[in-house]
Amino acid sequence: MTSKPDSATEPRAVAVNVLKGGFGKSTTAINLARELAERNGRVLLIDLDDNGHTTFNLGYRDQYESDNHVQQVLLDGEDPLDHVVSVTDELDLLPSHEALEEVETNLKSAMASSQRLNRNVVDPLLGDTYSYIVIDTPANRGKINDNALFAAKNLLVPLRPESGWESGITQTNKRLIQEARQYFDLQLLALVPTDLSERLDQSTRDRNLLYAINSRDELASFVPNFAHLSAADWEAIDDGNYDGPLPGIRHRASIDKAHRARKPLRDYDPECDQLKCYEELAQIVENGGVSR
User: Residue limits of the AAA domain (predicted)?
Assistant: First the structure.
């Protein structure tokens, strides 16, 4: 189990983002936010993904279908605290809304259109009201995504071992990270392999993903320790001698069942062995990057 942060840890916002759907953004955002709250006190989780999975998986479908609070906060300047809901004692949620497409359209003609989330939510709340803010983002480019990146300035990229993961990270780097860095400092904190279940001693999708991100110089430093494999580890795997932990966030029925129960994993199954991975992600956010 990772150690608690010291009192000098600075407040930080982080966006969970990849330009491809179905890669575990919502699961990562929910459980990262919950672990940050467990370790640090009050945390705000913001759902800006138009599919609303984070909102649904925490039991707030009614807010998704009610008045357009995202419009009211980002464009009308209403107090975001009037629209947050409680997930646990220390974790709040600003839910998504079914009319985010309308918000996207209206942002295009708004003054300082990419700075609204920062000005109206993150800047006034981070540090004073919340120790950390986690933002679940859309899987497509647009003003809402721009708002998330500008407000967070820190990024986690979840990756599932599916066809298209390479194009997902390539597009995320080219169309989000590199473009954003022309205008503000955006830090990639970690690449997060998630929902792994296959063997590594055969040519599986899990192996291909893990080998690629661990062997490429431009990616390896962003791989969390729970997914890190050295050259010696790969040799041991291929020789049948590897006795280390299975890398990556592994597929567990408890993770899916927690969504159906409308709870974060910690609150549904506090004994799940994958909680240690989300704890390390929380530590990465606290520290501002991966530490070996």
Answer: 13-175
Our CA angle for 51, 131, 267, nearest 5°, is 60
The per-residue pLDDT for range 270-283, each reduced to its tens digit, is 999 999 999 999 99
H runs (alpha helix) in the chain = 25-40, 53-57, 61-64, 69-74, 100-107, 116-117, 123-125, 143-152, 165-171, 178-180, 205-215, 217-220, 231-239, 253-260, 265-268, 275-287
Residue 46: count of CB within 10 angstroms of its CB: 32
DSSP lists the bridge partners of residue 187 as: 154
CA dihedral 233, 17, 128, 72 (to 10 degrees): -160
Can you give the residue ranges of every domain in the chain?
Answer: 12-194+252-277
Reported as a single tens digit per residue, the pLDDT across 183-202 is: 899 999 999 999 999 999 99
Q: Which tens digit of pLDDT belongs to each residue from 29-56? A: 999 999 999 999 999 999 999 999 999 9
Q: Are 51 and 97 in contact, with CB atoms under 8 Å apart?
A: no
Tokens 């699961």 belong to residue: 27
State which fold the 12-194+252-277 domain adopts.
Rossmann fold (3.40.50)
Q: Number of C-alpha atoms within 13 angstroms, CB side, residue 142?
A: 18
Whether the Cβ atoms of residue 187 and residue 193 lie closer than 8 Å to each other? no
